[in-house]
Amino acid sequence: MDTKGATAARTRPAGVPQNVWAMGAVSFLTDFSTEMIYPLLPAFLTGTLGASKAFLGAMEGVAESLASLLKLFSGALADKLGVRKPIVTAGYTLSSLAKPIVAVASSPWHVLAVRIADRTGKGIRTAPRDALIADSVDESQRGVAFGLQRTMDNAGAVTGPLAAALLLSLLAGNMRLVFALSAVPALLCIVVLAVFVREVHPERRLEKSKTVLTLRPFDRVFLVYLAVVFLFTLGNSSDAFILLRASDMGLSMTLVPVAWVVLHVVKMVTSMPAGIVSDKVGRRKLIVAGWVVYAAVYAGFAVGHAPAHAWTLFAVYGVYFGFTEGVEKAFVADLVPADLRGTAYGAFNFAVGIGALPASVVMGILWSSFGPRWAFGFGAGLALLASLLLAALVPEGRREVEAA
Q1: Cα gap 404→398, rounded to integer Å
Q2: Which residue among 7, 186, 248, 402 is least crowded, i.e. fewest CB within 10 A of its CB?
Q3: Contact 299, 380 (CB under 8 A)
């Protein structure tokens, strides 16, 4: 085991270790590339290629559910091998090479294939990446580490749509060329990952588990947490529906990417403070608060009807992400042993991802059959129920569990 590397990663005097900054830079470049494409994709699919809302929902659900399965396997594999970086690199490389191919898509099925390849890469990399970040810091820095990673990720999600909007204005609205140019930050991400990210081997217990895919090593608290997260996710459909709803509420096609930027600006400025607060007061409180904000936002999208409503809801939606994205992942590390973090993050991301297919499909069906009020109201109701269950059933972390 590379204990020297692990010690160096944890004791670097700069405060936050180099690995966390490097992984943040990788996330920045990846989201820069992704968000040059994603805000334009619903309009490209439904407008240019003639796909239906049902196809959009099914595509997002299938892609995310496939990614969730791979997250489960890749996390367990990372624990089995005791390494993270090679698996992380493989995942980022696949996504980086796949995304720009949407530029030559001529049918909705081509976009589906690209999304599946992109989400496959995400499925391969996510759990080992989160484990690598958790391995690089001690418990007192987990909230800060994941908050920093989410801040830089969201910074990429801010600059990507702005770059896309600028390019669209310079290229006479040529979305395909914008998609092709997204390859530049995607390839830079691979370079940063290869040069600046270092492997940090997790600390292992004396007995080494030979089981790869099982939840048996985890206690009841973590399993309940997974169940509650899954329930919340059933009401958390693809954000493609948020973008479509913004158009329904009066935002023009040129303003929808700007609203998307507003969302990510709020995510960016709230992620780090939320991580710091969670290190001091506990993760669960932040997650519950974030889920309540989510319920309020979805209720707003259910009844809102004016552009001003859309702008407000996009901004508040960013608060939900800032409160929860990094904190939920830090909470996973709080609840499980160090040498099971890869498997735990795989299980967590599996619980999140496997709910994506029914969530997006149900959203599409409810919207098509009963309208957006019922569709978004369903998500708001599940979020409120999940927040109550999390507050009632899941303690704050391993220390609280052991003290009970």
Answers
A1: 10
A2: 402
A3: yes
What is d(CA 143, CA 375) in angstroms, rounded to the nearest whole number?
A: 33
310's enclosing H/E stretch is: helix 307-335
- Tokens for 339, please give them: 């040498």
Q: Confirm whether pTM is higher than 0.85.
A: no
Question: Looking at the domain assignment, is residue 3 inside a domain?
Answer: no
Q: List, as one string, the DSSP characters of 316-331.
A: HHHHHHHHHHHHHHHH
Rounded CA gap, 288 and 22, in Å?
A: 30
DSSP 48: I
Tokens of 362: 């149900």
The residues, any chain, with a CB within 8 Å of residue 402's CB and separated by 6 or more, are none
Q: Which amino acid is at 391?
A: A
Radius of gyration of the chain (CA): 20
Q: Closest Cα to residue 349, out of 219, 223, 226?
A: 226
Name residues whose C-beta falls within 8 Å of residue 12's C-beta, 6 or more positions apart in sequence: 18
Q: Which of 400, 363, 379, 369 is nearest to 313 (CA)?
A: 379
Distance separating alpha carbons of residues 92 and 94, to the nearest angstrom? 6
Q: Is residue 115 part of a domain?
A: yes
- How many CB atoms are closer than 10 A to CB 184? 14
CA distance 282 to 77: 30
Instruction: Give the C-alpha separation, 316 to 320, whole Å.
Output: 7
Q: Other CB atoms closer than 10 Å to residue 296's CB: what's the count?
A: 17
Residue 142 domain boundaries: 17-201+217-399
CATH number at residue 58: 1.20.1250.20
- Neighbouring residues of 242: CB distance < 8 A, sequence distance ≥ 6: 301, 314, 317
Counting every residue written for the chain, the total comes to 404
Do residues 119 and 64 touch, judged by C-beta distance below 8 A? yes
pLDDT tens for each residue of 323-339: 998 899 889 988 988 77
Give the whole-angstrom CA distance, residue 32 versus residue 158: 8
Tokens 């895919």 locate to 213
What pLDDT, in 10s, does the model give residues 258-310? 888 899 899 889 988 998 899 888 899 999 999 999 999 999 999 988 999 99
154 falls within a domain: yes
Under 8 Å between Cβ of 192 and 33: no
Domain total of the chain: 1
73 falls within a domain: yes
Tokens representing residue 12 in the block? 């670097």
Reduced to 3 states, what is the DSSP secondary structure of residue 138? Answer: coil
